[in-house]
Specification:
single chain; about 240 residues; alpha/beta; 6-stranded parallel beta sheet; two-stranded antiparallel ribbon; 8 strands; globular; binds uridine-5'-diphosphate
Length: about 240
């Protein structure tokens, strides 16, 4: 697998199709793989959060989630075929899951959201087997029970929606114990599936403006929009 280093993090230079087949191989091998989806905001955070940077560089697969990541690869003179958005990757894996008898577990987001996302998935992907859900609000004393719940459900794919970097750190800490073939940090994916949060319209995604849409829809995140211009400057300066 070819990777491109952006601000110290190795990102896979893959198409969506390749990403799906890499994940499916990890499921078959039961390798206990961690999959992350890196957008500009995550990469900016990794420049000052060394633990996150280390986790990403040890992950089995980091896909280029976001127009900013693909732009950075190109700006640094590397090939990167396309954006592999976490949300889309998860949809592709769920579409394929019944064929391979792959089971999923949804962990994260506010109470009720994972249940709604499960119902949506069952409607969209007939035959899909979602073996458990658990919301993402818990205290450290609940963790043992959550891990036990996931282990007993024996999913092939665990989706963890706790936000960045909580989901990556939680997974890195518990990966061995969980013993799940593939775990993916999915951010707002369950919120979008449940209809709690909207994704940018297709024309905005195509115009590479999804980040702007997210900032406008959630004014509390507006400050986070600044990560993008900062990312552009930092990538440009890192060019040798
Ligand atoms: N979340 C959670 N537990 C927490 C903090 C956040 O389950 O302690 C959930 C939150 O409800 C949302 C997701 O994590 O569903 C974070 O989504 P966001 O779009 O902010 O993801 P990011 O942009 O960080 O990837």
């Amino acid at each position: 697998m070819h990777t491109v280093q952006i601000l110290g993090v190795n990102i896979a230079s893959v198409t969506m199709k390749e990403a799906v087949s890499i994940v499916e191989k990890h499921i078959e091998n039961k390798s206990g793989a961690l999959v992350a989806t890196a957008n500009a905001e995550m990469l900016m955070r990794a420049t000052h959060d060394k633990e996150l940077a280390r986790i990403l560089n040890q992950a089995a697969l980091v896909v280029p989630d976001g127009a900013g990541t693909v732009w950075a690869a190109h700006h640094l003179g590397h090939a990167m075929p396309e954006r592999v958005a976490g949300y889309d990757l998860v949809q592709e894996l769920m579409r394929e899951a019944p064929k391979h008898d792959h089971k999923l577990f949804f962990f994260g987001s506010a109470p009720g959201v994972a249940e709604k996302a499960k119902k949506k998935a069952e409607k969209l992907y007939p035959g899909i087997d979602i073996v458990g859900v658990r919301n993402g609000f818990f205290s450290s004393s609940d963790e043992k029970e959550i891990i036990q719940m996931i282990k007993e459900a024996r999913p092939d794919i665990l989706l963890v929606a706790l936000g960045v970097p909580k989901q990556e750190k939680w997974l890195a800490r518990n990966l061995k114990d969980l013993n799940v073939p593939v775990s993916i940090g999915v951010g707002g994916t369950l919120d979008v599936m449940a209809g709690v949060m909207k994704r940018a319209p297709l024309w905005m995604q195509r115009a590479k403006l999804e980040w702007l849409f997210r900032g406008l829809m959630q004014p509390t995140r507006a400050k986070r929009l600044l990560a993008l211009p900062r990312f552009v400057m930092k990538v440009h300066r890192s060019r040798t």
